[in-house]
Amino acid sequence: MEHIVIIGSGLAGYTLARELRKLDKAVPLIIITADDGRYYSKPLLSNALAQGKTADQLAGAFAPVMAEQLNAEVLAFSRVEEIDPVARSVRVAQRVIAYSKLVLALGADPVRPQLAGNAADSVLSVNDLMDYARFRERMAGARRVTILGGGLIGCEFANDLSHAGHQVDIVHPALHPLDRLLPEAAAQDLQRGLAGVGVTWHLGHTATAVNHAAAGYAVTLDDGVIIAADAVLAAIGLRPRVTLAQAAGIRAARGIQVNRLLETSAAGVYALGDCAEVAGHVLPYVMPLMAQARALAATLAGTPTEVVYPAMPVMVKTPACPVAVATVAEGLAGSWQVACGEEGVCALYQDDQQGLLGFALTGKQAGQRQALAKRLPALMP
Amino acid sequence: MKVWTCVVCGFIYDEAAGLPEEGIAPGTRWQDIPEGWACPDCGVAKADFEMVAV
Ligand SMILES: Cc1cc2nc3c(=O)[nH]c(=O)nc-3n(C[C@H](O)[C@H](O)[C@H](O)COP(=O)(O)OP(=O)(O)OC[C@H]3O[C@@H](n4cnc5c(N)ncnc54)[C@H](O)[C@@H]3O)c2cc1C
User: Fold this and answer.
1) Which residues form the Rubredoxin binding domain (chain A) (predicted)?
2) What domain range is A99 assigned to?
3) Of residues A173, A367, A271, A292, the one with CA closest to residue B14
């Protein structure tokens, strides 16, 4: 009999289950997850501290409630150790669970910084609800916090931590924050905005060591500068979880490779969310996974449906200087037209016909994002 | 007039302001927004929004 197994209970796994149940109320569904299976929204983790929210306040239903709502079996604290795509089964500890369709919604691991020093292991990262609970506990006694990485997540935490009253240092190897997403003028505006709420920048440098100090930690940079910190948070990137699939012979590159039907190289095995590389795109954001979940739900319910990506601007949740960015689809050539003013930066990436291909907006200008997004070409029509 | 917030990404819909850029006029009540509407920032469906009292 047809039955579907989803591995992972993050936004990708649970959204897929919810979309599937809108189309098929009956097909047997098992969700296997290494964590506690509680529903939560990951984007809220990087602006919850200043609001005084505990992990429990951020979390939604527990696994048994999710199971009931989704008419599914939810196996919490169950790490899948092996996939057998030939026998069509997965193994969890000593138990073998068969599937007819398998969905990998495994997420991504935070990249660990390469650090010397006797406190390198104390560096925190926040990538799920349990990390957040630990992080919040550690922040209770921390005055000075050093963040490694000035990308989207690093900047969001910097803003949140300084709002919550911490003294924040950010170490970032490029000369501007979010340098991979933003043109210089927009990046500088964000940099100024965060400096304005008390964030200290260490741009053009990386941390080389973290050691215990008399009080807290000493973070050593590549130029010898030492930052005193009570806690160190790393936000230097995410790496899609591919090893489980690779060990089963399922093709992976940057992420688990799938086509626009979200099928992997193994028959009956699909992938979505942060672990997936969809027709060459690795987009670890909520909007793409929602589009994937809707398409895959239809496919699993019997109507093969390719995922379509409209333009999908990303909001950076830095109230000190809100940023909206729509990256330019690969292979599209143009140039930046940058206008700066009281209202922030409006940087438009246009082709030689003035056609809009991408944008970066800061401050009040970010409010235009929806209107401008309508003028962008679809990322994957 | 009420204010609603997206449970996934924190996006705020203020009935008084509407979302003119999305074709939703100021003063449009939540219940009058089409069911097929989704959060402009993260794409979560209308049915999965939650209300916040202001
Ligand atoms: C702090 C932060 C802020 C963010 N803010 C935004 C934002 O504002 N907007 C936006 O669009 N995106 C944002 N993102 C990105 C967004 O949150 C992610 O793209 C999304 O949550 C990924 O969901 P997922 O289900 O793919 O992965 P995850 O939520 O990581 O879920 C993976 C699941 O797989 C399970 N799992 C993994 N391996 C196994 C195994 N072997 N066996 C069983 N279970 C396993 C895990 O336990 C987990 O349940 C943010 C991310 C972070 C970290």
Assistant:
1) 306-376
2) 3-108+238-301
3) A367
- Given a contact cutoff of 8 angstroms between Cβ atoms, the answer to whether A305 and A261 are in contact is yes
Q: What single-letter DSSP state applies at residue A284?
A: -
CA A6–ligand 1 middle distance (angstroms)? 14
DSSP string, A107-156: -EEEPPP--BSTTGGG-B---SHHHHHHHHHHHHT-SEEEEE--SHHHHH
Do A266 and A354 fall within a single domain? no
CB contact under 8 A, B10 and A47: yes
Give the residues across from A238 on adjacent strands: A110
Q: CA-CA distance, B29 to A195, in Å (whole number)?
A: 39
Determine if the pTM surpasses 0.90.
yes
pLDDT tens figures, A89-138: 999 999 999 999 999 999 999 999 999 999 999 999 999 999 999 999 99
Q: For the segment A152-195, what is each residue's pLDDT rounded down to a tens digit? A: 999 999 999 999 999 999 999 999 999 999 999 999 999 999 99
Burial A348-359 (b: 16+ CB within 10 A, else e): bbeeeeeebbbb
Q: How far is B42 from chain A (nearest CA, A)?
A: 4
Residues of A in contact with B21 (CB under 8 A): 368, 370-371, 374
Domains of chain B, first to last: 1-53 (2.20.28.10)
